[in-house]
Design a protein that fits this description.
Blueprint (H helix, E strand, L loop, with lengths): L1 H33 L14 H6 L8 H15 L4 H21 L2 H17 L3 H6 L6 H14 L11 H17 L3 H17 L3 H18 L2 H14 L7 H17 L3 H17 L3 H18 L5 H13 L3 H13 L6 H17 L3 H18 L4 H14 L3 H9 L9 H17 L3 H23 L10 H14 L3 H13 L6 H18 L2 H17 L3 H46 L5 H71 L5 H26 L5 E3 H16 L6 E7 L3 E3 H21 L7 E11 L2 E8 L16 H12 L3 E6 L3 E8 L3 H8 L1
Parallel strand pairs: 2-4
Antiparallel strand pairs: 1-3, 4-5, 5-7, 6-7
Helix pairs in contact: 1-7, 3-4, 3-5, 4-5, 5-7, 7-8, 7-9, 8-9, 9-10, 10-11, 11-12, 12-13, 13-14, 13-15, 14-15, 14-28, 15-16, 15-17, 16-17, 17-18, 18-19, 19-20, 19-21, 20-21, 21-22, 22-23, 23-24, 23-25, 24-25, 25-26, 27-28, 28-29, 29-30, 29-31, 30-31, 31-32
């Protein structure tokens, strides 16, 4: 009996040992399965997939074969086709089976990941979810993030579901925190940030990124900090309100990369800034940054990518330099490789656009068809906007029936999305308008406008949207149709909608819009408004005229002058015929009265002589009137030329100041001395204050006066972006009476504001949380004005004397006040206050002084 008890005890101990051993083995395998730092994306392979498949022959069943099978699976996944995803799953399954046989845990983890990624891409989310049961720890987190991203976006086979996506993202983050995995915590935070962005909760999305950035800033990991600034700058949805933030975030990444000695990634962040510039038609700023990138790559002896060359081409295209744009696009295509198929499509599209712009429609059509075929093959939804471009080229070549057949042949796979189908409805409208089938054309145009309205909500939450027909394009198409139907009042409504949107638009579209507004207002009898639109149209056309255009303009002027001279000659010939008829009549009278008395002859002679004198006097008066009219036209042309030249001078001065600012920015990136950097920043601010003045002068109708309130608001906006005042909790209050000032007064006023505001931002709020800077410009009495700049900061130092202070800022403001012939006061009163009282100089007085 005792033996039985002892045996039972020993058996229990043995079972506990086996259980303990089994638990240790299971724990070890679980830990191995948990640990993975592999990225969410599938990296590109330098070896073609076909060669990898050939490499499987005669390869033994070891871990190297597993790795090769997974490389092949990744290659098929990158094809982005249904067949590619299916083949990816097949090879990943083979790798998984072999990994389990070899007990090769990393191979199993990667194979499950590839199967999940391909299943989600093929819209088989059920299979993707089932794979969660075969993964643990960090490997499971990676799968959860794939599923969360699946639910973020609409697709051809499913609608996005932000709530479901958020559930999986939160699940992934909890697992990451429990596993104490910082890497996967960050990845989960990013997918949740994207969720917020798409849900139009921009502040929450930014908060997620800033939490990650703050962590790496605290631990001193500069490269990680820069990486996440860059990711925030690229994933933040693009709009007018976020443009400045995207530029700021990418510049933060650029500066940190440079400081850390990583010039290559700094160049890529600068390229992201240039890309934002181009999206908002800021070609000059973009080009300066892109040329800087080229110099960095040349210094590092790095190959310039297709994408970089293509962006430079876009910048020159926006500037109207099509020759250089074409040259750089050719360089882009020369730099392309098999891995750059998506960027090659962009390059082909740019080539097509350039050929369209210079009138080579057959060349443009060929390139647009290449783009269409590649996008269709790769399943890109951009294919519908490309179809719109193909139809436009066919119509310009007079091949309307071919365009209609092409539209009817297009697959309707993505037609449930208004953002995509809008371009197709616009194309049908264009074709039927060309064929003079106005009822059909208008039906499709109205459907296009309904699509556009529905797509606006979708666009607000897009992180990276496909190429589509923009609202200004849609409005302009319908307005053009209405103008052809002589429905001018309706057309004007849509033309004004064009100008009220903030999309990046080509200059040619803006010029056409102003020209159509000029025609519509002329037809409606709004002559004042019509003249304004015509002047804007001419200003735009003149700013982009090539030498060929100038020659054509000269020829037209010569033809007009010749036409006027021919009309004058015809008038004189008619008068001469009339005169000859009168002479014949008098001669007949003389013949009939020759037998009369001498008195009758004398009277007849006197009548004839008086008639000749009167005719000669009339001719002299007409000649003098013609000379006066010609001189008046010449004087009007001289005045117009003078105004145009002055605007061109202001334009060039503004561009030169912008160039100086960019050169200073480039120089500052090479300096480490804080005093020198501050000096350069102060110089940039002063130059910007003057640059804004010249910009307003060349854009305004009145080239002598500038409206002070809008100028101050624009200057304040510049300081908000430059010094990131929102992050520093500094707010501005601007209260200015609307008034126009001459250039002689606006320049010193701008520089005074620049000195006061920059000094306040830098030194006035060391520890103040709710900081405020107020600017008040009021009319004291008649032409007497008072400018007050105040803050609630720490104020001036004790024993500060404005008359004896040797500070450069105070000295500069005092000198500029004297230039205004005004008084200058600075003192402390719950902060710092600056008062400048000066008298306004009117433009008419300046004119009298000059005369």
């Amino acid at each position: 009996m005792s033996y039985g008890i002892e045996y039972k005890s020993n058996d229990g101990q043995a079972m506990r040992r086996v259980y303990l051993l089994f638990s240790l083995i299971l724990l070890a395998s679980t830990v191995l399965a948990q640990h993975t730092k592999n990225p969410i994306g599938i990296p590109r392979d330098s070896v073609p997939t076909e060669k990898l498949v050939q490499g499987l022959q005669n390869l033994p069943n070891d871990t190297n074969r597993v790795i090769l099978l997974e490389r092949i699976a990744g290659g098929y996944w990158r094809l982005n086709t249904k067949e590619g995803y299916a083949t990816c799953i097949q090879y990943a399954e083979k790798a998984d089976v072999l990994s389990k046989k070899l007990k090769y845990v990393p191979g199993h983890v990667e194979a499950v990941y590839l199967k999940c990624k391909a299943a989600a891409a093929a819209c088989d989310i059920r299979t993707a979810k089932l794979l969660l049961y075969s993964a643990y720890g960090e490997a499971k987190i990676r799968l959860l993030i794939i599923i969360a991203e699946y639910y973020l976006y609409d697709d051809s086979c499913h609608k996005g579901n932000l709530d479901t996506s958020q559930e999986y993202g939160i699940w992934a983050r909890k697992l990451a925190d429990s596993a104490n995995s910082r890497h996967w915590h960050d990845e989960a935070q990013i997918v949740l940030a994207k969720n917020y962005f798409i849900g139009n909760q921009l502040s929450l999305g930014q908060k997620n990124y800033l939490e990650i950035i703050g962590y790496y800033h605290r631990i001193g990991d500069k490269l990680k900090e820069a990486d996440y600034w860059s990711k925030l700058g690229t994933t933040l949805p693009e709009s007018d309100s976020t443009q400045g933030l995207k530029i700021t975030y990418n510049l933060n990444a650029y500066n940190i990369y440079l400081h850390a000695g990583n010039e290559e990634d700094a160049a890529y962040s600068l390229r992201d800034v240039a890309e934002v510039n181009l999206h908002f038609n800021q070609a000059d700023s973009a080009l300066l940054r892109l040329l800087r990138i080229l110099s960095i790559f040349q210094k590092l002896k790095k190959k310039v990518s297709l994408h970089t060359y293509s962006l430079i081409s876009t910048a020159y295209y926006q500037k109207g330099d099509f020759r250089k744009s074409l040259d750089y696009e050719n360089l882009a295509l020369a730099a392309a490789s098999n891995k750059d198929q998506a960027y090659t499509i962009v390059a082909y599209e740019r080539m097509a656009t350039i050929y369209e712009k210079i009138g080579f429609y057959k060349n443009a059509l060929n390139y647009y068809k290449k783009v269409f075929d590649d996008e269709h093959k790769m399943g890109f939804p951009d294919v519908y906007y490309t179809a719109y471009q193909v139809v436009n080229m066919l119509l310009k070549l007079g091949r309307a029936n071919e365009a209609l057949a092409f539209l009817e042949s297009i697959e309707r796979e993505w037609f449930q999305f208004p953002l995509l189908v809008e371009a197709i409805h616009a194309s049908y409208g264009n074709v039927y308008a060309y064929l003079k089938k106005t009822q059909l054309a208008e039906r499709y145009y109205l459907q296009m406008l309904r699509d556009d309205k529905e797509s606006q909500t979708e666009l607000k939450k897009e992180i990276s949207s496909v190429e589509h027909l923009t609202s200004p394009e849609a409005y302009l198409l319908y307005a053009r149709f209405l103008m052809g139907e002589h429905r001018y009042k309706e057309a004007k409504i849509y033309l004004l909608k064009c100008s009220s949107t903030n999309y990046s638009r080509e200059i040619s579209e803006i010029a056409e819009e102003q020209h159509l507004l000029f025609k519509a207002d002329s037809a409606l009898g709004n002559f004042k408004s019509s003249l304004t639109h015509f002047l804007k149209y001419r200003a735009i056309k003149d700013s982009v005229l090539s030498q060929q255009s100038l020659n054509q303009l000269t020829e037209i002027q010569v033809e007009n002058q010749v036409s006027k001279k021919e009309e004058s000659i015809k008038l004189l010939q008619s008068q001469a015929k009339t005169r000859d008829g009168e002479v014949q009549k008098v001669s007949l009278q003389r013949n009939f009265t020759i037998i009369g008395i001498i008195v009758s002859l004398v009277i007849a002679y006197l009548i004839y002589h008086s008639y000749r004198l009167k005719n000669r006097s009339n001719i002299d008066l007409k000649i003098k009137q013609l000379e006066i009219n010609t001189k008046n036209q010449m004087l009007e042309q001289l005045v117009a030329d003078k105004d145009w030249l002055l605007k061109e001078v202001h334009h060039r001065v503004k561009n030169n100041l912008h160039m100086i600012t960019s050169l200073l920015e480039t120089q500052s990136s090479m300096l480490s001395n804080n005093a020198a950097l501050d000096a350069i920043r102060e110089s940039q601010d002063r130059i910007q204050a003057i640059s804004l003045i010249h910009q307003r002068l060349y854009m305004a109708a009145d080239i002598e006066m500038i409206e002070i309130r809008s100028y101050i608001l624009e200057l304040v906006q510049y300081f908000k972006y430059t010094y990131q005042t929102v992050q520093q909790n500094i707010r501005f209050t601007v209260n200015c009476v609307p008034s126009n000032f001459t250039v002689e007064q606006i320049v010193p006023l701008g520089l005074i504001l620049n000195e006061a505001i920059t000094n306040t931002i830098k030194y006035g709020f060391p520890e103040i949380i709710d900081a405020e800077i107020s600017i008040d410009l009021s009319e004291v009495d008649g032409d007497l004005f008072r400018l007050e700049i105040a803050d609630n900061g720490i104020g001036l130092p004790e024993n500060f004397n404005a008359d004896t202070a040797k500070s450069m800022g105070v000295s500069l403001m005092r000198g500029l006040s004297k230039q205004l012939r005004g008084t200058f006061q600075i003192f402390s009163d719950s902060g710092t206050k600056i008062f400048i009282v000066f008298k306004k100089i009117n433009s008419e007085k300046n004119c009298r002084n000059k005369s």
